[in-house]
Structures
1.
Amino acid sequence: IDKYEVTNALYKACVGEGFCGPPQENGSYERVHYYDNSEFDNYPVISVDWNQANAYCEWRGTQLPTEAQWEKAARGTDGRTYPWGEGPDCSKANYNGCQSDTAVVGGYESGISPYGLYDMAGNVWEWVADWYSDTYYQSSLLSNPLGPESGELKLKSLRGGSWAKDEISLRSAHRGWLAANLWSNLVGFRCARTP
């Protein structure tokens, strides 16, 4: 799984090659010029729907991680609540008013996961491969479940919380959702490669 969230600069390369469509909106929550401003090249790309995120990962020869892959990458094998362990604060993640918009990718050294991954909590929600289902994990495989074959209301799962959400949404096991064809300035993504 990627060490960092996909940045504006990385996503622009895919757009430049004609494989990806540009984000649905150029600005971020407080910034009118975000995607098209080189000052924010190392900030997470936002305002892309699930299909755009999936296309980018395919362009790279990867895929969006499953929820199970994402969660293990975020919390490790010891069942920690947050990627770094316990007790969130503004030195570990961008959430709940720590900043009033997205932050530079990889800026929270004390918030890395057990596998050395950055921003697995806060900054932006992250698209994952799975369709969303409230009940799937009540009857799924215990080892590496691949997610349901279809989704409720065409919803795709989100993980990690965002800069605008509270500490509950930062928990590594917390799940969010959004329709696959919708986008938000709170949502980005990272890719994974299955060996």
2.
Amino acid sequence: MTDKLFDHYSAHASAWDELFDRAGAPHPHCSTLVKRLGDLQVTDFGTKRTDADLAFVNQGVTFSVYSDRRGVEKIFPFDLIPRPIPAAEWARVEEGLVQRLKALNLFLKDVYHEQRILKEGRIPSELVLGSKGYRKEMEGFTPPGEVYIHICGTDLIRDAAGQFVVLEDNGRTPSGVSYVLENRAVMKKVFPYLFQECRVKRVEDYPQRLREALASVAPSGASRSPSVVVLSPGQHNSAYFEHSFLARHMGVELVFGPDLFVHDDVVYLKTTRGPQRVDVIYRRLDDDFLDPEAFRPDSLLGVPGLFRAYCAGNVTLANAVGTGVADDKAVYPYVEEMIRFYLEQEPILKNVPTYICARPDDCKYVLDHLEELAVKAVNESGGYGMLMGPSSTAEQRAEFAGKLKDNPRNYIAQPVVTLSTCPTWTEDGPAPRHVDLRPYIISGKSTWVLPGGLTRPALVKGSLVVNSSQGGGSKDTWVLE
């Protein structure tokens, strides 16, 4: 008899499994999902996987890995077994994410104005003012709508006890939401009946919600229907697929730096009908490259005079210039304190305990315990600039020890948290693979959280690194009604 999908599945010995409890029974909220998938024969599931892969190829869903010699452009690895989250649990996660983003926005407003949190010693001034993401040019300036982070991707992990905790915040140009939307479209084609039976919350509203949020914080001089554009560094960027995807689905122009110009401190788009004023720019390039007059003079990606127009209050940039200080990994440990300071509330979502290597005592502890810790460069992303102590070699630890001693401010360290696992298809059938979750929070006049987000499985057995650039993939995340 042909094997059914979960006949030989065995959950991870010490991690929380997203579908099954310790006894091997499905969690109550996903019993219908497990039954329907579990009734599938492995050969039938393989056919559905082929259908899904073909859909991704046809839709051109790709990302880039610059370091891979076999080719830069990759079809995004997608796993067909979804990751379900019950409604009650999601409601609390959503509340915690809204609370966190509110505090981060208040923090940015404060550090570029009164700096109360620094003066009162709640966060060390040198950590904030010495951050690569801190922009002196933003001091005293308030963005239109008083929103700094319009789109945030906060990375969550579930620990061995099943509790969601925050691993880091991405408040500059968080990527990945296009894969959430494409994953859902493919899943609906492959498993239409499952959505009807499991009652999964919609994610398709994201582009419309994003456009409405951006329009809501347009400058005061904008028309009743503000002009919004997506500014991309170009097709060689690793997230270019997402830039074009979001522009298309929001119904706005995708533009590059040379498509825009500034006249009398107002930004215009060059069109065949003549110049068209631009009110809001959802920019997907870093601060340094935005404006060669204000930042890097060698940038060919930005728009000369853009920052001047921004400071004149004639255009909204999302996210605001200078938000990098809020997602600096050395500032991250203080977000719980920001919530207490600005909101007078206890944090709903907790941080992972973190050692700040800029502190001499923390740095000494990290150097003495490198084999136990995850050490991260504070301004790197995508799994780069990182040491996973338990799986590292003596040579790698020695190299990192030298980097820590040379520039302690550039590193933090955390205990290695055993991420939860989710059944994921492998060459040997379904097996537990570690996953994280990146929900997306949109903030304009109001704040909205996408139900679910990007679940990234580490496709390598035992690996805790889920980034696509390091061999990770993605799953559809189902928030159940």
3.
Amino acid sequence: MSIKTITVFVDGGAASDARLAAACEMALKHDAHVVAVAFARQFDMGVYAMPGAEMAMDLSAIDTARGEAKELAKRAEAKMQAAGVSADARWASSIAAGLEETAARAARHSDIAIVGPAGGEGPAGEAAEAAFEGALFGSGRPVLMLPEGWSKPVGTKVMLCWDGSHVAARALQDAMPFIKAAGAVTVALVDPEPGVDGTGEEPGADIATVIARHGVAVEVKTIARAGASVAERLLSTAQEMGADLMVMGGYGHSRLREAIFSGVSRSVLEAPGVPVLVSH
């Protein structure tokens, strides 16, 4: 796989600008095209479509939201042009399909989608969560989540969270452009049991051999939980080693609260300490 089309979701805030800058940097590195997508705020029209229901919503609010999204797209396009990347910007109304499906459809037509931390209050938080969930669970593409305010490069030092599962293997495949560009990767396993769940008699050795055949230097790191959660140990290890990309597989259904990566908590994905590439 190579990265040739990047979707990035924008909302006009400082974190949104950082995501756009990261997308442009990635595009220049991989000779890729960037598509910036600005959401209109979501309005639930279902209740107003019921027979006999009164139209209580001020429809001018919909036009205002669409106008804001169009302006966001215009500003994003100007920034991408200034960065010298191949790019275009679009705005998307969620009235017809819902925010998640809108995000899924946008991300589906790219090689990777860049989102911000999920959760938060108000329309911005709703849009951030919908962009993440829609892109991850509905697009079939990997998702790169950037921490709030991240301004450093992404993918110069990569840590792969490995548990021998099929989704971890999928995440590895999706992350190979970053791993090859970095030239090295650390394979991290938390309390692996030899011979169980696909980790092999020497946990991490088999997948390390597969990666090494791509000309990449591989280090296998076994981590003890030591009373902490798997998520806490993985994140602390990534930060200790100075990783700027953590790669993991995503589990669950179409809601964050139903579990990501065997118990990586919702709070981790709301405020990740390092960029996280997630595949489902």
